[in-house]
Each structure stands twice: as C-alpha cells, then as structure tokens.
Write a structure and sequence with these properties.
globular, eight-stranded mixed beta sheet, four-stranded antiparallel beta sheet, 34% helix, homodimer, alpha/beta, 400 residues
C-alpha cells in the first residue's frame, strides 16, 4: 500500500497487445491497494516515423516545431494506454506533460525540468484514478511544448516520484534487472537485488545502458528508490538506492565497452601548457576524453596517450596533426575498455591486483589502467574483451 | 493587404508534397503583404489510423481519451506545415488549439467553441509570423483537450476570422468553388462568383457538401466573408457573404439528394393529435423528417406521406406499424429529392411553375413538392434525378 510510479518505454507499448500487457501490470499494482502513476514513452516506431516526416518537408527544422511534433507521440500512447486500462474496468485519466505540471526551461530538444506543479496529479490520485502521464515532454514559460531529450521518460518518472514523494519508482525495461555482466555472454552472470546510485551511474557510463544517467542522478538527489524490472516478466528486479546491505560480493558488475579509440602522441616536446592546449582543443570540438596516460620519453619529450569514443579517433588525430609538429600521432580503434564497479572495493586494497591477476592468468595484456573510488578500468585488445570479462567475473562473483 | 485566414483540409496536407504545396499558397499570400493565419486538419488518413488504434485496445473508449488521442493528429500536421514554411524562408509558428486560445465546452467529440482568447495569435501576428493553428480542437475549463466534431476545422477557421476581424476566411477544398450543379454531371454547370450565407446553407443541406453548415452559420452570425477555393488550383473561388449583387441568374444552384425514403401512411383514421403522436415518436428515435404531405382520403381517413433519410425508411415503417392499426404503411426508397436554391426566387412567383414546366417537358412525374423562401424541392423517381437536374439547370441557368 503506497504510491508507485511506473515507467514503460516505447517498446513496451509498441502495439495493442503490449499496451494491454502494460495495462495488466498497472492494474495489478492498483488492485494491491496502491496509488499508481504511469509514465509512458511514445509507441515503438512513432518517434522515428515523426522524424522521417519532418525530414521530408524540411531537413533542418526549427527545434521548437520539432518538439511540437515529437510531443504528439506520447499523446497517442498515453490515451491508448488509458483506454486499455479503462477497458479493464479501472478508473483512469491520461495527462500530457503540461497537464501533469512539467515546467521546463526553453532548450528545445533537450529541455531540463525546472519544477513539477503536482496539483492536477494529486487531484486525480485523490479521485482514485490511475494517472497515465506523457513522459519526455513539458512546457516552457511561453506555453510552448518542450521535450527532454534522450532518456527523458525515465527522468519524467523520477521527477514525478520525487514531486509526489512516491514510495518507489519502477522502471520497466526489456531485461529483468541489473546484472553483474551481460547474461547472454558471461556464464554465471547474476541479477543484483540491490545496487547504489553511484554504482548504477558507473555501470551506465560503462555501457550497461539500463537506466538513463540523468534519471539516476535525479533519483540520487531526491532519494527516490528505483527498481529496474522487466515488462514481459514482472518479477522483482533490481533496487537502486543510496545504502544497500553489505553482501559477500565485493564488486557489483563487470562491463565491457568497445566504443573506444586509443590515441597516442609519441615524442611530444615538453613545452609548458602543451597538455592543457591539447585537451582544451579536443573539448572545444566536443570530443570527450576518458582515460589519460602520460609517460616520459627520451630527450625531454613525453608520450601522451588517451581514449576517446571510436568515431572521434581519426578526427582527433587530424586535429592534433594540424596543431603539433615533430611528433608521431597514431590511433588504435581495436581496443576495448573492461571495468569492474562496486562501492565495496574502496575499502579492499587487493581489488585491483585481483583483477590484474585474473587477466594475467588469462594471458591478456593491459595497455592502460584507470581507477576511481568505485571503479577500475583497463584498456585491452578488443579481441580479448569477452574473455577478459569472463575471467574477471569468475574471479570476483561467487558462482553459487 | 489585410488579414487572411486560410483553412486546409486533411487531403490538402496528406503527404510531404501536398504540405509543401500548401506552404507555397500560404507564403504567396504572405508575400503579397497580408497577415496570414492558417488552420489545418489532421493529415489524410491520420484520423482513421488513430481511430483504428483506439479500437484495438478498447472498442468503446471514453470520449475524453478519444479527444486526447485525436488531437495528436493536428499537432502533427501543424508542426510539419510550419517546418515546410520555415524551409521556404518565412517566419512561422505553429499553435495547438489551446495555445491559440480556443475555449470550448466539455462535450468531448463534438465540443462547441465558447470563445477565443486571441492574445497569443495577435502577439505572433505582431511579430510578423505566419501562424499555423490546429483546427478541430480546443480546451475546456478543466484544461482537458476537446475536439469539435465533423467539419470542426472549418468552424475553427471561421471562429479565428471572427475573433481577429479578418478581411477574409478562405476555405481550400478539392473543388474550385460552389457550382450551380455538379459539374461532372451537368453540362453548363457554372462556378458561382458569389452566394449568400442562406443559399450556401440550403445547398449544403441539400447534399452539395462543400462547407460545413456550422461554419457557414457562424460566418453569417459574425459577418465573416468566406471564400471557397481549390488548393490544387488556387484561382479565385466562390465568395460567401450576406448581400451579393443582383445577377441575371434567378437561382444559385440545382442539387440532387438520393438519400431519401418516402414513407406513406394510407387510410389513417383522423383522430385528434394522431399526426403529432406520429412525428413525436419519430423524433424520439432521432429520425429526421423532411417533407410532409397530407391528403384526405375517403370515409374520414387521411393519407400522410413524409420523407426520411434512406436508412431510416424501414425502421420508420416498423415503428409506425407497432403504433397504428387499420392503415397501410409503405416505404419507397427509390426516390430522389431535386431542389433549386436562390435568394432571388422569393420575389419571382413564376419560379416554381418554371421548374415544374421543365420537369413536365422532360416527362418526369412529381410525387411531392416542398417550398421555402429560397428553395423549391420536388420528390421524383430516383432514376430520373440526373435528367431532372439537367433539365431544370438548362431552364434556369443561362448557358452563355
């Protein structure tokens, strides 16, 4: 008995059958005596269809009009879901972003939520309605529609949970929770019962895209308890919260990211500020640098090695060649980043060496290492990534 | 130089090419120095698609949710048209019904406009924007979306023209104007330069469905000058207004309506109030009666003959058989109503006889006659309807 916010993505409401499936999950929760707010994305291909339609009339449409167009997508899915719930005999109402009180700034296409005026939401809940809310969208102070950008519906759901002080925010996806590694690839990969916000954030940035980062950050900020679970098999999933009980597992997950390019600047003359200039230039071009390694070469030169996303590899080389003389710049896209994440590891100094040992015993060469409080990443050959994940997973996760 | 409201229906914006065509018409009008407000319907099949989607999840959805769903249709078309206009280099903004200030009552599915708060429209026009408005939709006092029902976009356009005191409201259709008869069927059928509101209303009810009646009534009430013209060939069309200059044409048009059933009650006992009871019963079942003829038979009985729409013919017979004894009730669906319409005819007593003469000379038998100030209708055999229209048209419309 409480207030539950449930969020369903576009694939969960892709067609009539799936809409009815979602309606069943929602009404089951309601029948258990809970107040329920449901946040939905646009149906499956609607977003792509609308983008294609726009492209046919104008290849570079104004973002304000694009948001006006895109917002129609959730308008369709919320009314259909409300109809399905109504058809099952439950009281329900659908609300557009602005009807649900989502006030945003005016950055069309990737607006930020400024606040939620929850009056209407509260009034509908007081009438015992199931409330279906359009995710991803809001309204700015000019009364124009805005959209929140990638992963916006997750953020909408968390924002509502925060505004209404919901007991839980359930994010339904196509997986049953957060796993210690990709269960399709790693034998013994386990679903986690619980995970902290920080661990979830690290896992997300490392390629385990179950939850949008903005929504996890917001959940952390407002203390909203999240649950990641499957809309096709709605058994208990993974809870994301601030503090979790100590478990025998030292680390929370092993992930692989192959969207990595390794750029090496060899024989760089060590003039003052040269590293700053290099990274300022890259930042200016919106090239995000991840891991940086610097080593001293001979004759007062140094080697500077860093990673960027794969498609930024060659452009970064071009950019640097125009900027630097007398040094060799090479790019290697045949690499992967393998990482372990876990809030427990910071108090266990042996974690890194245990990871390296697992790699050594599998004959895998480490090219770079990066560590943070709750994460250790290594750059290795792309071909060895899957083998590396399995070896590390086996070393850390008890196979009970 | 003035303020023009232009309305385009769903087929005019059915695909990207047609959207661009509409954008050209709109921007041509703007280039001539006019302020332009454009009202559009949902694209071609969008409405049907959305209705089908609703039917898949709930065969009898709540009307409030149906309106929430349907309103997405114009949201898509207005943003696409705005993008197309923007792509041609003109300043433009799209507005949803509620953004354009359309306040309606709460009869979902066929809401009535209560008023238009034109502040936003005026502000955008003051910025020299072309304003693209979603027709067919508004908002009620609960901040819920409503739709206006059949022909709603015409009504939206006229309402804006009235609220902004526009110089003209142009209704773009797939015909080039209002004709004296169906030009595909009647040789010598002419496009009218002008027609009065009352004539237009009679033509519309008689089956010449160019303009929605509600919109013509509203235009008459607020003195909005209408123009009916083609979006595929935007040459001057037909102007609809209160007073038009006298023309040599006595009548404005000849129309045919085959959606007619003739119900005859023969040998009805003439008890007091029997006619009232019959028509009250029909009205109660929502059967609209058009022409009524009463004649006295022998032995104190009378014959009562009237017309209803075709699908109400047999049900009316059934209803009356349960109600009346001792009389014979028959239904003839093989009839048509042919009418002439013209404000000029009321001052020409010879009009009716001229019409009957034309039919007599073509050997066409008249079964019933009905007259009003600006209309004369006859009921004849359905097979002879086209021939009747041609004969009457030839008699009245000078073939210059």
């Amino acid at each position: 008995m409480g207030l539950i916010v449930q969020k369903f993505g576009g694939s969960s409401v892709a067609d009539a059958e799936r809409v009815k499936n979602v309606a069943r999950i929602v009404t089951d929760t309601y029948k258990q005596g809970n107040d329920v707010v449901v946040v939905v994305s646009a149906q499956g291909d609607t977003t792509d269809d609308l983008i294609a339609k726009a492209g046919e009339v104008n290849p570079h449409p104004a973002k304000r009009e694009m948001d006006q167009l895109m917002a129609a997508g959730e308008q369709i899915s919320i009314s259909l879901l409300a109809m399905a719930i109504e058809g099952m005999g439950f009281p329900v109402i659908s609300l557009l972003g602005w009807q649900a009180g989502f006030n945003t700034n005016s950055i069309y296409g990737s607006a930020r939520i400024k606040n939620i005026r929850p009056n209407r939401l509260q009034a509908e809940l007081a009438k015992h309605n199931i409330v279906v809310v359009a995710g991803f969208q809001g309204i700015n102070r000019y009364d124009d529609l805005t959209t929140l950008g990638r992963g916006g519906s997750d953020t909408s759901a968390v924002a509502i949970a925060a505004a209404l002080r919901a007991d839980r925010c359930q994010i339904f996806t196509d997986v049953e929770g957060v796993y210690t590694a990709d269960p399709r690839k790693v034998e013994g990969a386990k679903k986690l019962d619980e995970i902290t916000y920080d661990e979830m954030l690290e896992l997300a940035t490392l390629g385990a895209q179950v939850l949008n980062n903005r929504s996890v950050e917001m959940a952390k900020k407002y203390g909203v308890e999240l649950e990641v679970l499957s809309s096709l098999n709605p058994i208990p999933g993974t809870i994301v919260k601030e503090h979790i009980k100590m478990e025998k597992m030292l680390i929370r997950g092993v992930t692989k990211d192959t969207d990595v390019a390794l750029v090496s600047i060899l024989g760089l003359k060590d003039t003052p500020g040269v590293a700053f200039k290099i990274f300022a230039k890259l930042a200016q071009k919106n090239m995000n640098v991840d891991i940086i390694l610097q080593s001293f070469g001979r004759d007062g030169t140094k080697d500077l090695i860093f990673t960027v996303s794969k498609d930024n590899g060659e452009p970064a080389v071009k950019l640097l060649e125009d900027m630097l003389d007398d040094c060799r710049i090479v790019c290697n896209t045949n690499v992967a980043k393998v990482s372990i994440v876990g809030a427990g590891m910071e108090s266990h100094p042996g974690t890194a060496s245990k990871m390296f040992e697992a790699l050594f015993e599998s004959n895998i060469n480490i090219q770079m290492i990066s560590t943070s409080e709750i994460k250790i990443s290594v750059i290795i050959d792309a071909e060895e990534a899957d083998r590396a994940v399995s070896a590390i997973h086996k070393a850390f996760i008890p196979n009970d």
